[in-house]
Amino acid sequence: MSTPAAMARALERRRPSAHVSLHRISAKTLTVFTRQWSALMSAGIPLVQAFQLLGQSAVGSRKTRQSLGQILQQLQQDVSAGSALHVAFQKHPHTFNSLYCSLLQAGESAGILDTLLVRLANTLEAHAQLKAKVQHALIYPACILLVACGVLTVILIWVVPLFEAVFQSMGAALPQATQQLIQVSRWVSQWGLPCLALLTCAAIGLHRGYRRSLTVRLGWESATSALPLMGPLMQSHRSAKWALTLSALLEAGIPISEALQPAAAASGSALLQAHTAKLMQHIQEGSGLNVAMSKSKLFPPVLIQMCAIGEETGSLAAMLEKAAQLLMADLNQHIAQLTTLLEPLLMVFLGGLIGGMMVALYLPIFNLGQVF
After folding, report:
1. Mean pLDDT for the stretch of residues 107-118
2. Helix (DSSP H) and strand (DSSP E) numbers for the chain
3. CB count, 10 Å around CB of 63?
4. Fewest CB within 10 angstroms: 103, 207, 243, 251, which?
5. Is the pLDDT score of 18 beyond 50?
6. For residue 44, which of 117, 118, 120, 114 has the smallest C-alpha distance?
């Protein structure tokens, strides 16, 4: 049986070796570009002329407009030279992922490119909304912890030494809590900056490894999925994107065997990408999609049940879209619960920590007051 690491290496070997564009376009800019392109196609504007107009009306920063303009110029040249539309877009995988190119190929083959561009823009918007919700759930506690770390650092490096000098002038014996706080202050003053530099280098190295190595992404995703609060939230997020993307691909007429890989890639889940080969193998052996999904622990039960209903009724694409809506509602509930739970927990934790430090600092003064 193939291991996830072996499947990861196989996926990396299957990546296209075509010309890779180094330009990166934000999801918002890409969505606006797709909507504008759909409107031009519905108006009957030829492709080459549409690319020229899109380059002139590009939104975003100056660098973004320049990058998109260069990509559109290359697309215009490739299409004018007779290249298929999806082939021209596949030369820029950092901007147009496999979902984008697969839907373009389906729309080009069926002659309904304008319709599929609308569906593609809707899918991109849904992906952006899911990502924004997860980011908002993570930004609040991250900001609170960052501010708290700054306050604690100020207290340990600048405030505690001032009290230590006062205590030394008194010549009295210090309580155990105060002595421990002074030792922590000395350690942070001496080793805080080297530790911060070491952690920064480790974070940069991990980030680079995450971007370049699928094996690192597999390990990171497995670790985050095991977290008690964040694990279910991230699973709902990835599963909703997977279901939404697969629904769009199936509705476009793409066979499920060809739609699974783009759907896994669009979900942003390294584990789903690594296990897609197993899903395709089970389907080729005659199993249904829901049976193949049930053999993996990557999909929530509601998604498996909706897939089973869709396969039985012949409406898999519609049921996947409904399942994605249910997962998004579940995601919203998880985010609300997480925010409601984290706020008081953070306040109690930080209040107790900072309050304990203040008590340890003033405890010698209280003791002296009792003596006199």
Report:
1. 81
2. 16, 0
3. 10
4. 207
5. no
6. 114
Per CATH, 1-7+119-372 and 8-118 having the same topology is answered yes
Predicted local distance difference test score (pLDDT) of residue 171: 72
The amino acid occupying position 342 is L
> Whole-angstrom Cα distance, residue 243 to residue 249?
10
Give per-residue pLDDT as tens, 241-295: 899 888 888 888 888 888 888 888 888 888 888 888 888 888 888 888 899 888 8
User: SS3 for 90?
Assistant: helix
CATH superfamily of 1-7+119-372: Type II secretion system (T2SS), domain F (1.20.81.30)
Q: Which helix (H) or strand (E) holds 224?
A: helix 214-225
Contact in structure between 86 and 110 (CB atoms under 8 Å): no
Contact 133, 236 (CB under 8 A): no
Q: Give the integer Cα–Cα distance in Å for 371 and 114.
A: 85
Size of the chain in residues: 372
Of the listed ranges 82-96, 286-300, 307-321, 326-340, the one predicted with least confidence: 326-340
**Domain 8-118: which CATH class?**
mainly alpha
Question: 111: helix, coil or strand?
Answer: coil
Q: Please give the pLDDT value at position 368.
A: 64
Can you tell me the mean pLDDT for 145-162?
A: 87
Distances (CA, A) of 75 to 31, 83, 315: 17, 9, 36
Which backbone phi and psi does 19 adopt, to 5 degrees?
A: -60, 125
pLDDT at 142: 83
Written as one string, the DSSP assignment of 328-369 is HHHHHHHHHHHHHHHHHHHHHHHHHHHHHHHHHHHHHHHHHH
- Give the C-alpha separation, 112 to 115, whole Å: 5
Query: Residue ranges of the domains in the chain?
Result: 1-7+119-372, 8-118
Tokens 């942070």 belong to which residue? 188
Which residues are within 8 A (CB) of 30 and not within 5 positions of it... i.e. 6 or more apart? 95, 96, 124
Whether residue 1 has pLDDT greater than 70: no
Q: Is 345 exposed, middle or buried (0-12, 13-18, 19+ CB in 10 A)?
A: exposed
How far apart, in whole angstroms, are the C-alpha atoms of residue 227 and residue 244?
Answer: 25
* CA angle at 133 for the pair 62 and 320, rounded to the nearest 5°: 105
